[in-house]
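Quick question, first post here. What does this chain look like in 3D?
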Amino acid sequence: MPETLPVDPTLPSHHQPANGSDSLRALCSTLHAQITAFLHEDVQTETLRRVQAQTRTSLSVIQEALTRYPLTSLSLSYNGGKDCLVLLLLYLSALHAHPSLPPLLPAIYIQPPHPFPSVDAFVARSATKYHLSLARNANPSMSAAFASYLDQNSGIEAIFVGTRRTDPHGGALGFFDRTDGGWPAFMRCHPVIDWHYVEIWSFLRHLGVEYCELYDEGYTSLGGTTDTHPNPKLRIQGEEGRYRPAYELEDDREERLGRER
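> Answer (accepted):
Ran it through. Tokens below.
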């Protein structure tokens, strides 16, 4: 059973970890109730209305995946980033009525070279909080990492991925895309492919979701320590080394300005 996480009095309440001893079904039911309440909320901004529409679409895609594949053949690519965090919450919500939930959900974390300690810590903390059976792989080749994972988990047929259309190689993707070009064979499922940057952040902040602390330090896209920096568009003028939080960026096209590749 996952360990119970301590409360950190230095964190605001919406950043506190949930009790890791809660069952997966209880967690899914709680998230389903929260997301359903959000979908019925009379929100006051156009952005949140778009988020409601995106949420409904993504939940429909996840339900389609659950219709196409048994739960035992599904996994999640999870690196602690904002996009796959939204995907994870929606996935858990969609599982609230599933007849046969396991104690933990299969997932894979492909670590970048030179990972941030704070990202690794958040991945570990959130994997416990959200009941993930998380396999870690540090192979610098993503295709090789997935190949190794599938060799060790031969029943996996489809993997949820938090890619968005503005990500590298995301422009031509749909909700379901089989791998090709020498990659190991599996179905990639992209429920949040059409979400925009501001919609991701609006969802997380409106629901009060804990996220990696680097985002509050001006990082808008997370990789490794050697190729990821705070976004220059968020630099606070006249205050050396200080940046506004990631959620204050608005333009999708500026999201990766802190990445070297």
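The first strand starts at residue 74 and ends at 77.
The CA atoms of residues 51 and 199 lie 6 Å apart.
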